[in-house]
Design goal:
Length: 48
């Protein structure tokens, strides 16, 4: 399992990018803001 924590938004809240290393299917939990930062994390893990 891929689990990546990212601090986002003006309130510096935690967002999580999770995914399967085999299927590359992922999800974003509690995005809260900073879409470019989140998209970069998803791309870095090669998740869909």
């Amino acid at each position: 399992m891929i689990v990546r924590q990212i601090v986002v938004g003006s309130m510096s809240v935690c967002c999580y990018v999770i995914g399967c290393p085999e299927t590359k299917i992922g999800a974003v939990i509690d995005p809260g803001g900073s879409i470019d930062k989140i998209k970069a994390a998803v791309a870095a893990e090669n998740l869909m």
